[in-house]
Amino acid sequence: MAEQRKQETRRAQRLGEFSVLEWEQRLRDELVTGGLWIPDTQAPDYRTLRPYGPVTTPGFPIYENLEERLAETKEHPDEVVAHVLATCAAYSYSDTATVSMIMARLGLEQNVCRTFTSFVDPMFIRSTAFLIQSRSGRVAILCYRGTELTSFVNWLTDADVAVTRMEYGLGDRGANVHAGFYRNVRATRYQVVQALKQAQESRSVRVPLPCETNGTAPSRTERRLEALYITGHSLGAAMAAMMTVMLKHERKFAVGEDELASLLRATYTFGQPMIGDPAFAKGCEENEFLRTKVLRFIYDNDVVPHLPPRSTGPFQHFGREYRYHIPNLQNSICELLGYLGCVQGGQNGTWREEKKPTGQSLTAFGGFGLAGASFLLKKIKPMRSLPFPYSFDDHSPINYVQALTPPGVQNEFGD
Fold first, then answer.
1. Which of 23, 199, 220, 325 is deepest in the core (most CB within 10 A)?
2. pLDDT digit string (tens) for 286-304?
């Protein structure tokens, strides 16, 4: 009887709309079994970011009118948008507060960032999505985290190359997609879409804890959502592309007065693997948005865009492809001359739109073997610029950020 009264007392105590006992049960479920985790935060203002000296200076924030630039840019790719989204994708490997802080430094002061994380290890699910909302509410960026180096489940997701059908009227009804990528997108999709619905209704996507607000509704924003961007690196790039296809081909997102698909301005991916077979890619190419506004950026000889390998079955890219070409052979000679004491003067690369999409490597062993050899030999100065066909180093998100940084912009910190 005493234990029963104790349980009833705890159930009666409340934190907002939930009782203390309910919060304890939810917390225990999250810690013990995984599931869906949704933290959020609001970025600091510029005075908080710069407690000493002038609040704003030339170069800080990185882009003074970033919200306006994102909301009003119609033609893509855009160099500012590409730099901002590459930086966002790179920092998605961090936590919510860090992503929000970096986006504030770029120009989205006091943005709201909400993170959706779902993990079910036996199902190879390790899905993390960040939704960044500008202070006024006009702009939102949906960013998916890529493969975490320390997450064995993430690597199993990448290796889960079995295909599954995606029934969205993509031409050939036999079109198939990468099962691991598809499963991970769906793990957080409905929570992401629910938050986007809030943004469309001029509401903040942040949901404060009951102890902060006594259970009141989320605060409202000045404007409703006008422009949405989707981005990601590596596995996150694959999930970004997959989510884009869903938004453009599911009728519930493309009809009605609250049409979500029409708000999507562009999808920028970095180091993206292929997500579907040739029939799927062909169906995507028949959609004007998927053909022209899905922009894939590849840094030189990044191995990941060549995956999955041909030995696992046919896969194919869709959308527009931009590759950063580095004159590796010329730079290799310069490196050797420099090592011998002569003048060295290697050259940076240039971005070029490719006429044909990147193809698959023959086998996983061939692609990873050459990429591994490249990784080891690049640690030796005279061999640093040898022209290997595949590279692990080139897949690093920092390469994408640096290569897409516009002239005159120092770094993402603004210092």
1. 199
2. 999 999 999 999 999 899 9
3-state secondary structure of 30: helix
Amino acid at 37: W
Annotate 103-169 with DSSP letters as a single string: HHHHT-TT-EEEEEEEEEGGGTEEEEEEEEE-TTSSEEEEEE----TT-HHHHHHHH---EEE--S-
Per-residue pLDDT of 317-349, as tens digits, reads 999 999 999 876 555 555 555 554 554 544 578
Domains held by the chain: number: 2
Q: Is residue 378 part of a domain?
A: no
- Burial class of residue 143 in the structure, from the number of CB atoms within 10 Å of its CB (0-12 exposed, 13-18 middle, 19+ buried): buried
Dump strand ranges (E) for 137-260.
139-144, 163-165, 176-178, 227-233
Q: What DSSP designation does 13 have?
A: S
Residue 129, beta-bridge partner list: 116, 144
Same domain assignment for residues 93 and 210: yes
Task: Quote the tokens at residue 313.
Answer: 């079955």
How far is residue 108's CA from residue 115's CA, in Å, rounded to a whole number?
Answer: 17
Across 234-349, the runs of DSSP E, i.e. the strands, are 264-270, 294-299, 320-325
Residue in 117, 171, 162, 186 with CA at minimum distance from that of residue 318: 171
The answer to whether 209 touches 16, Cβ cutoff 8 Å, is: yes
Task: At 183, list the tokens.
Answer: 């499963």
Nearest-CA neighbor of 389 among 266, 300, 324? 300
Is 411 inside any structural domain? no
Q: Token pair 């969205």 is at which residue?
A: 168
Model pTM score: 0.83
Domain range for 24: 1-33
